[in-house]
């Protein structure tokens, strides 16, 4: 079946050039953002409609329009609509030859016909694959956006949008695709840092058998598995003398307990420091810092969850931090388990994984004091080195301007939902490659459920309508109206129960 004719290339003051061309629309199906094709001397030229202009010479001069409006009989009989025309200004993306896109070196010819892009060729041109992750539908085309796993995750992914624009919804769609993936196509282990309980719904419904949820209040870090260097990173306030003393004592304690075959916890370390022969001021400071760490009820004699529970192919592990109030405790959890995941992956002891970090700007902030940057170094390390070892990051944030430039710049694929803050837009433009001025404007006008994908996962930036999710929505993500209604219903029920008891 032939592709529909959309219009004819025209000659203007600006072109056609090797970069742009315009065509008069003869088919009203043409829309902004649509991919089109036209035949040239060098081959088939692919283009994307950047803007559509509608004009009518009868309405160009204000005095003519005013006179026209005065004469009602003229309004009824004069065929002004016959002089209307619509022009599509189009960006020339390149020639599609031998299944490859090559740069256009000769412009389209005025008078050449413009057609709808062939669907199969469009899939191939954009890099979609049959066993890819189905994110949704390509805007203005009946084409499923199936992104290759390698291109999407190997060099990391950033999902950026303002609050309420659909970040977590899109992230859930991506998680569904990873969990539905067949073993023969290669499956990742997925670990999610869930700050607001938005992914707890995966423990219900179709994905319950592939999902593990770990309550943040029950998560534990085995102190004997924490190296002196790591503990000092958890306590950035320590000076060089304090670091030296605590490293020495931890080394002695670890050696003793290893010989005995037993683990040790925070009380054991504190007791050993109190017994040690050292400067009183140093001792007092060390005990104080360790007692503060102990108040988080995080350090014990063993890890929970253990790596075998946390990281398995084709499974989702959710670290549910929604009931934790302390941001430092959240940072400690992320820092420890991210370090352990990366270290074990480098040794080949666990499968390739994707670590999804919600509210990433709170765990890897561009500017923050040392005590609130505990998890930042390991996130930046995975961003820089993870692709070599099969350790992928998915950074989700509503404040890109606060997110580490180092981490964000290493994400070779970016998915943008609506962002309106001018500081965030500026930071995105500076940190993400391939973002031009027109794309910056597009990001501010996206609707809920619409996304712009840029980078390694696609050969050209595309607009996507995100598909409907299959997983159960978490009750913690309910609307304000629903929560208010539930609270009042609960209060009424309590009152009725009291009256019935009396």
> What is the fold named in CATH at topology level of the largest domain?
Rossmann fold
- Give the helix proportion (percent range): 25-40%
**Strand order, largest beta sheet:** 9-8-20-19-18-10-17-16-11-15-12
Q: Which spans have pLDDT < 50 for at least 5 consecutive residues?
A: none
Main sheet makeup? 11 strands, mixed
Q: How much strand?
A: 15-25%
The CATH class label of the largest domain is Alpha Beta
CA-based shape: elongated
CATH superfamily name of the largest domain? P-loop containing nucleotide triphosphate hydrolases
By DSSP (H or I, 4+ residues per run), the number of helices equals 16
| Spatial extent as radius of gyration | 29 Å
Question: What is the CATH-assigned architecture of the largest domain?
Answer: 3-Layer(aba) Sandwich
Q: Cα distance, first to last residue?
A: 78 Å
Q: What is the mean predicted local confidence, pLDDT?
A: 89
Number-wise, the strands total 20
How many domains? The number is 4
The class by helix and strand makeup works out as alpha/beta
């Amino acid at each position: 079946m032939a592709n529909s004719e959309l219009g004819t290339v025209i000659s203007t003051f600006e072109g056609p050039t090797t970069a742009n061309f315009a065509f008069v629309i003869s088919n009203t199906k043409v829309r902004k953002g649509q991919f089109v094709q036209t035949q040239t001397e060098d081959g088939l030229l692919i283009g994307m409609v950047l803007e559509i202009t509608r004009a009518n010479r009868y309405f160009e001069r204000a005095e003519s329009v005013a006179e026209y409006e005065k004469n009602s009989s003229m309004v009824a009989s004069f065929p002004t609509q016959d002089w209307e025309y619509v022009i599509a200004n189009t960006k020339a993306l390149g020639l599609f030859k031998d299944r490859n896109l090559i740069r256009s070196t000769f412009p389209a010819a005025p008078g050449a016909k413009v057609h709808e892009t062939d669907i199969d060729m469009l899939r191939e041109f954009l890099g979609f694959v049959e066993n890819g992750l189905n994110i949704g539908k390509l805007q203005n085309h009946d084409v499923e956006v199936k992104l290759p796993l390698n291109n999407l995750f190997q060099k990391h992914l950033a999902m950026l949008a303002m609050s309420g624009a659909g970040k977590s919804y899109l992230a859930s769609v991506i998680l569904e695709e990873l969990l539905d993936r067949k073993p023969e196509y290669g499956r990742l282990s997925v670990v999610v840092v869930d700050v607001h309980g938005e992914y707890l719904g995966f423990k219900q419904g179709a994905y319950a058998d592939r999902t593990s949820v770990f309550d943040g209040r029950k998560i534990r870090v085995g102190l004997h598995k924490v190296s002196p260097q790591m503990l000092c990173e958890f306590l950035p306030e320590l000076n060089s003398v304090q670091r030296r003393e605590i490293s020495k004592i931890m080394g002695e304690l670890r050696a003793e307990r290893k010989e005995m075959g037993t683990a040790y916890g925070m009380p054991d370390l504190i007791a050993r420091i109190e017994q040690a022969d050292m400067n009183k001021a140093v001792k007092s400071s060390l005990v104080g810092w360790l007692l503060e760490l102990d108040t988080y009820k995080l350090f014990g004699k063993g890890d929970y969850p253990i790596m075998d529970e946390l990281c398995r192919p084709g499974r989702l592990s959710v670290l549910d931090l929604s009931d934790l109030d302390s941001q430092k405790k959240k940072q400690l959890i992320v820092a420890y388990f991210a370090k352990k995941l990366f270290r074990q992956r480098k040794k080949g002891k666990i499968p390739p994984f994707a670590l999804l970090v919600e509210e990433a700007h709170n765990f890897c902030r561009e500017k923050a004091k040392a005590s609130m940057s505990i998890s930042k170094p390991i996130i930046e390390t995975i961003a820089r080195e993870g692709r070599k070892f099969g350790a992928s990051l998915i950074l989700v944030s509503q404040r890109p301007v606060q997110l580490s430039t180092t981490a964000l710049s290493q994400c070779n694929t970016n998915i943008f939902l609506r962002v309106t803050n001018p500081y965030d837009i500026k930071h995105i433009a500076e940190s993400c490659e391939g973002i031009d001025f027109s794309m910056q404007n597009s990001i501010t006008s996206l609707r809920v459920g619409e996304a712009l994908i840029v980078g390694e996962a696609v050969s050209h930036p595309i607009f996507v309508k995100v598909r409907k999710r299959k997983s159960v929505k978490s009750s913690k993500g309910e609307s304000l109206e629903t929560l208010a209604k539930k609270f009042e219903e609960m209060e009424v029920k309590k009152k009725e129960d009291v009256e019935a008891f009396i």
